[in-house]
Amino acid sequence: MPHHIVVEKLCSCAKKHALEQLVTCNDRDDAYDQAVEIATKCNEMFCGKHGFNVEEVNEHYVISVETGGFEEVCEL
Hints:
Layout: E1 3-7, H1 12-16, E2 22-25, H2 28-45, E3 50-57, E4 60-67
Parallel strand pairs: 1-4
Antiparallel strand pairs: 1-2, 3-4
């Protein structure tokens, strides 16, 4: 069963860095690891106006985008 990583919305930094909005993985653990890696990179590399966090939704992972920066990436 495929597991998807979906970026909730693409801010200007995400567009500038050509961040993919949908990534598909065959393994759930791999999808989670990649989602955390993507969110962490976004939090470290982007301008800081938004924070990125990982949420599990029906065995898929959504990278949420919040205004106002971040504290740390969620560990589910």
